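Narrative of accomplishments. A recurring question from our advisory board has been how the design workflow behaves on a single, concrete structure rather than in aggregate. To address it, we present the structure tokens for one chain from the evaluation set, followed by the sequence designed for it. No filtering or post-editing was applied between the two.
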């Protein structure tokens, strides 16, 4: 088991401006004069307090799960559950260590190997991600998410032929999944095939309507074509699907004025 981190994790502490103290004088959101209405400030205060409660609950859950792992260090599901909680608590390196421990204890689990690969890829540890994707596929060649992950890594390494091969295998293994269509679209966009890319991104939206990525990538095509209003609409759809994606906000803010575009 990895070393336990100390103290309650406050992932959004710098955003919420959590103040130390106790009693009614403690405000998670400043009670200084503000142009925002008292009702809005009250709602924000309630949200901030709820978030702090979630962090405390998460910390307690981690402590309980660590005790479980200490009692039986060979129980893979406990390690993976702990990994997921550390990930939520914004401790990705510790999460990855626990996930690797779980995968090592369950060497026949393609899902565990896949999850380690996805964590590593999200952290930018592409070689580690590649190794675990290969492990997942050795266990179960039908793990389409691993083929898709390998395609994304190959694209980042500018190995477009390998990326094309892997995404084709993802399609064969998993069928019409949003991430697979989106990967086809990104490859087409990189090759300058904008109409083909747009078609794939719309296919991604149809396959997974609640997934933000397809809308975000289609917006890039719209902006390339000068269709600013349409691109902004796609970005708003992406935010409706997942309001936590910072790069969607960044792209939206780079096009502050919507106007008629020149078309395709």
């Amino acid at each position: 088991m990895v070393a336990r981190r100390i103290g309650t994790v406050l992932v959004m502490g710098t955003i919420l401006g959590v103040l130390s103290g106790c009693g009614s004088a403690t405000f998670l959101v400043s009670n200084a004069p503000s142009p925002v209405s008292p009702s809005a400030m009250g709602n924000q205060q309630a949200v901030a307090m709820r978030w702090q409660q979630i962090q405390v609950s998460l910390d307690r859950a981690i402590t309980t799960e660590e005790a479980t792992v200490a009692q039986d260090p060979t129980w893979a599901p406990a390690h993976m559950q702990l990994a997921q909680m550390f990930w939520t608590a914004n401790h990705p390196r510790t999460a990855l260590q626990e996930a690797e421990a779980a995968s090592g204890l369950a060497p026949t689990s393609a899902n565990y190997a896949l999850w380690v690969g996805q964590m590593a890829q999200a952290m930018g540890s592409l070689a580690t991600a590649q190794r675990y994707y290969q492990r997942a596929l050795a266990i179960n060649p039908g793990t389409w998410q691993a083929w898709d992950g390998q395609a994304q890594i190959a694209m980042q390494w500018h190995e477009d032929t390998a990326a094309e091969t892997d995404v084709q295998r993802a399609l064969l293994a998993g069928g019409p999944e949003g991430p697979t269509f989106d990967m086809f679209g990104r490859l087409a966009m990189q090759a300058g095939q904008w109409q083909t890319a747009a078609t794939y991104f719309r296919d991604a939206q149809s396959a997974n309507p609640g997934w933000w990525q397809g809308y975000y990538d289609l917006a890039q095509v719209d902006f390339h074509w000068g269709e600013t209003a349409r691109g902004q609409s796609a970005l708003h759809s992406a935010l409706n699907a997942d309001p936590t994606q910072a790069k969607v906000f960044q792209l939206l803010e780079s096009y502050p004025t919507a106007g008629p575009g020149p078309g395709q």
